[in-house]
């Protein structure tokens, strides 16, 4: 792959270009080695990218030529597939993603899901005929047309970069929008390679996709503020989401937000406690807990609290954080020293709040390099503790006692977030009843999997606004126009 020769480039108006602010290092989080350099865009680059996206939307037939778009999105899927193995190695080294996860949401899943976006556009009912009526006594023929919103500014985080970049690019492009993607500064290359492949191996017209890597968060804010941008599609922390929403308010642009979570794993008193708590412990170790929808609060029957803590600690204590290149690794590094220190500060806070560690609690002694954190179970706290309320984004599970189903639902819902939840219980109707009362955008009952191209993903409350993936995720990128023609 001629993609990365030690330096990646921006994609602006169909051209691969260096950054106006030079370059910045991208680092392997498992080794702390510098992989190479990414183009560092400045404000002038972002301005040109927005201008290119605006012109591509206003002056070409991209938004109306569905056949072209469907072909281009499939082409992008196919070309990413042709470079799968190189992309896999890059994703493992830049993101620190365990190899096993690249078979799913870290790489292969989102590439395949581009096909769903293309298929949706191909069979979508763009115009709906509502027939003739006589509102106010005036004979009128009515139709409802769906069309692209316009220029989409996409701002993404580092944890599952392909998943998040492609779940925005695919539907937004298939729906007829043009885009400026500003990926996270921690994972610039995995986005830049998509730009190189688009420029060199697809028919996507110049300006339709622009990819602007930068260390400067203000470039994301530019997207949110600029009147030439019609919609901002943001995934990241709730704090940044708030700022994006405020910045977008001045131009009243459409805002789509996928934010943080503090999701609950509810174990009912008829559940197989050992199975449930092992699954809960295992899931929080995946990609070192850097998943917004990971269930990081384990809510268990009070009578069996100590047992539940011991089971979770048994599972998590046996998972050693390590080399993500190895096929058996579940828990790799966190993305950066900053993130590791942030997780550590929450572990320190857990002790200060009166909690105790049933396993883990710090950095693994056998990993001198890399940004590793031991899988950690925090016990002895209630849902009022800050470590039970705030997103930690590391391999950390807080175990909380409940006093029956109503109390479990109360605890699960007692959070500023509402991204995801899990319920385990032997009686399927009872578990379904609890699931129905949870205020969360995705709910797993007894191990069901909601991650799928045709399932909408997103959050209630401060976990976001709108849905990604599924037909709902496609329709986020559409406007609705009602046309009423006088019928004589
Ligand atoms: P972050 O909010 O710090 O940054 C996300 C992106 O926003 C980056 O590209 C960053 O450069 C940009 N940015 C920063 N400040 C900005 C501003 N003022 N205006 C516009 N853009 C700005 O998030 P992160 O630390 O990269 O990612 C971790 C967070 O993302 C976690 O909170 C996690 O829960 C969340 N997340 C949510 C989902 C979801 O779908 N709900 C998915 C993955 C991650």
Automatic annotation (TrEMBL):
GO molecular function: oxidoreductase activity, acting on the aldehyde or oxo group of donors, NAD or NADP as acceptor
Aldehyde dehydrogenase domain sequence ranges: 24-483
Pfam families the UniProt entry points to: Aldedh
Active-site residues (renumbered): 258
Top-level taxonomic group: Bacteria
Sorted UniProt keywords: Oxidoreductase
Plastid keyword on record: no
Family membership: Belongs to the aldehyde dehydrogenase family.
PANTHER family: ALDEHYDE DEHYDROGENASE, ALDEHYDE DEHYDROGENASE-RELATED
Name recorded for this polypeptide: Aldehyde dehydrogenase
């Amino acid at each position: 792959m001629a993609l990365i020769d030690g330096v990646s480039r921006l994609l602006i108006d169909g051209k691969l270009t260096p950054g106006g602010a030079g370059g910045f290092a991208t680092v392997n989080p498992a080794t702390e080695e510098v992989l190479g350099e990414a183009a560092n865009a400045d404000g002038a680059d972002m301005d040109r990218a927005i201008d290119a996206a605006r012109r591509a939307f206003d002056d070409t037939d991209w938004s109306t030529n569905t056949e072209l778009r469907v072909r281009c999105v499939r082409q992008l899927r196919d070309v990413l597939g042709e470079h799968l193995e190189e992309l896999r190695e890059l994703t493992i080294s830049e993101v620190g993603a365990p190899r096993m996860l690249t078979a799913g949401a870290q790489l292969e899943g989102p590439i395949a899901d581009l096909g769903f976006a293309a298929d949706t556009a191909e069979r979508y009912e763009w115009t709906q005929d509502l027939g003739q009526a006589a509102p106010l006594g005036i004979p009128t023929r009515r139709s409802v047309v769906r069309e692209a919103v316009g220029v989409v500014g996409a701002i993404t985080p580092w944890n599952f970069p392909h998943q998040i970049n492609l779940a925005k690019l695919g539907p937004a492009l298939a729906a007829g929008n043009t885009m400026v993607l500003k990926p996270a500064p921690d994972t610039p290359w995995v986005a830049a390679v998509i730009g190189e492949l688009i420029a060199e191996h697809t028919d996507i017209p110049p300006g339709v996709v622009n990819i602007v890597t930068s260390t400067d968060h203000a470039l994301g804010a530019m997207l949110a503020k600029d009147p030439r941008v019609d919609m901002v599609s943001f995934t990241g922390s709730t704090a940044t989401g708030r700022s994006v929403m405020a910045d977008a308010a001045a131009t009243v642009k459409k805002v789509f937000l996928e934010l943080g979570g503090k999701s609950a794993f509810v174990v009912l008193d008829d559940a197989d406690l050992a199975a449930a708590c092992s699954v809960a412990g295992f899931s929080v170790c995946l990609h070192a807990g850097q998943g917004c929808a990971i269930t990081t609060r384990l809510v268990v029957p009070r009578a069996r609290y100590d047992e539940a803590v011991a089971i979770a600690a048994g599972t998590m204590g046996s998972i050693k954080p390590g080399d993500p290149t190895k096929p058996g690794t579940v828990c790799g590094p966190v993305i950066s020293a900053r993130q590791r220190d942030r997780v550590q500060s929450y572990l320190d806070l857990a002790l200060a709040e009166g909690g105790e560690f049933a396993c883990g609690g710090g950095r693994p002694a056998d990993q001198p390099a890399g940004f590793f954190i031991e899988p950690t179970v925090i016990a002895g706290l209630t849902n009022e503790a800050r470590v039970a309320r705030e997103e930690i984004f590391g391999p950390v599970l807080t175990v909380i006692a409940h006093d029956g189903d109503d109390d479990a639902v109360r605890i699960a819902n007692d959070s500023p977030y509402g991204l995801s939840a899990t319920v385990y219980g032997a009686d399927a109707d009872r578990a379904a009843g609890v699931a129905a009362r949870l205020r969360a955008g995705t709910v797993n009952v007894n191990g069901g999997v909601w991650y799928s191209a045709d399932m909408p993903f997103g959050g209630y409350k401060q976990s976001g606004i709108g849905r990604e993936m599924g037909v709902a995720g496609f329709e986020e990128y559409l406007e609705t126009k009602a046309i009423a023609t006088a019928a004589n």
